Amino acid sequence: MEKIDFELRGDFIELDKLLKATGLAESGGAARMMITEGLVQVDGRDESRKTAKIRAGQVVGLHGARITVLAAPSQD
């Protein structure tokens, strides 16, 4: 299983953008198609909302890959 840590730059990222940003989808359209086809899970549950807001602490699964979303680094 491929494990990916993704660091947020803000409070959240939309699910389709996350899949593209991590390279699991080659385009936004491909990401939305994967979500529509029921291939994506968020925190172990199927997710059908293409623009679901994914926040720090959530885990996204797709094709044996697991993305752990991490909080943005503090700006001290």
Helix content bin:
10-25%
- Please list the strands of the largest sheet in the order they lie side by side: 1-7-6-3-4
Strand content: 35-45%
Gyration radius from CA atoms, angstroms: 12 Å
Distance between the termini: 35 Å
* Poorly predicted runs of 5 or more residues: none
How many helices does DSSP assign? 2
The average pLDDT score comes to: 94
Q: Which structural category fits the helices and strands?
A: alpha+beta
Give the tally of β-strands.
Answer: 7
What overall form do the CA principal axes indicate? globular
Structural features, described:
The protein is α+β, with helices and mostly antiparallel strands and 76 residues long. It is 21% helix and 36% strand. The chain has helices at 15-21, 28-36; strands spanning 2-7, 12-14, 40-42, 45-46, 53-55, 59-62, 65-70. α1 packs across α2. The radius of gyration is 12 Å and the shape is globular. It starts with a strand and ends in a 6-residue tail after the last strand.
In short:
The chain has 76 residues and is an alpha+beta fold. The protein is built from two helices and seven strands, in the order ββααβββββ.
